[in-house]
Design a protein that fits this description.
- By secondary structure, this protein is an alpha/beta fold.
- It contains 8 helices and 7 strands, in the order E-H-H-E-H-H-E-H-E-H-E-H-E-H-E.
- It has a 4-stranded parallel beta sheet with strand order 4-5-6-7, with helices on one face.
Length: 198
């Protein structure tokens, strides 16, 4: 079951909930919640940062209940994302699922050398992040076309690699051989859109 650490750290009775999952033999795939935090800070919400130490402590305390966890990535900062990856590996003794961030303004300027290094490290799964923001300047009608160009290049370069699309919720899921994806987009029609910090 995929869950965001951004919300898990606020969950009341978290230990009881995690125990129930364990009893049901359900293990967690933990997303750091970095993008949720980024969005809320952009709205002006007063949020505590997610620190490497805090995230690692949660992973260590619940390692028996966790199948895997994503790196604490930083949008538009592949260097800091790489530093976070190394620190989390050191603090937990278990490699996180790496998150490669595309350039959110110009997909072709993405750090392809960084993705090459990640693929060469031989991970079962690599996440692609930053795409929710990709193509926004092109407008809703053309946003998927911008993402399509990025994904064509990714899968051209690495046709055998398993990729997880973070925030993936469009028909592009049917066009490309993603191993997995996640999104809260399916529920947007039921949510009242607002800028409130709740």
């Amino acid at each position: 079951m995929l869950n965001s650490y951004f919300y898990l750290r606020r969950k009341k009775n978290l230990d009881d909930w995690l125990q129930k999952l364990q009893e049901a033999e359900i293990r967690l795939l933990v997303d750091s919640g970095a993008f949720t935090l980024y969005n809320r800070l952009e709205k002006g919400c007063n949020e505590e940062q997610i620190t490497i130490e805090e995230y690692a402590e949660f992973i260590n305390a619940n390692h028996e209940k966790i199948h895997g966890y994503f790196n604490l990535d930083v949008i538009n900062d592949p260097n800091q994302s790489e530093i976070n990856y190394e620190l989390l590996t050191k603090l937990t003794g278990k490699r996180p699922i790496p998150v490669w961030q595309c350039d959110t303004q110009k997909w072709h300027r993405s750090d392809w050398d960084s993705l090459d290094r990640i693929v060469q490290e031989d991970h079962e799964l690599i996440a692609i992040g930053g795409t929710v923001l990709l193509g926004k300047q092109a407008g809703p009608k053309y946003q998927d076309e911008v993402k399509r160009k990025l994904f064509k290049e990714v899968f051209r370069r690495y046709p055998e690699q398993n990729f997880h699309w973070l925030g993936g919720s469009s028909n592009l899921l049917l066009e490309f051989p993603f191993f997995s994806a996640d999104s809260s987009g399916w529920i947007n029609g039921r949510k009242k859109q607002s800028n409130l910090c709740l």
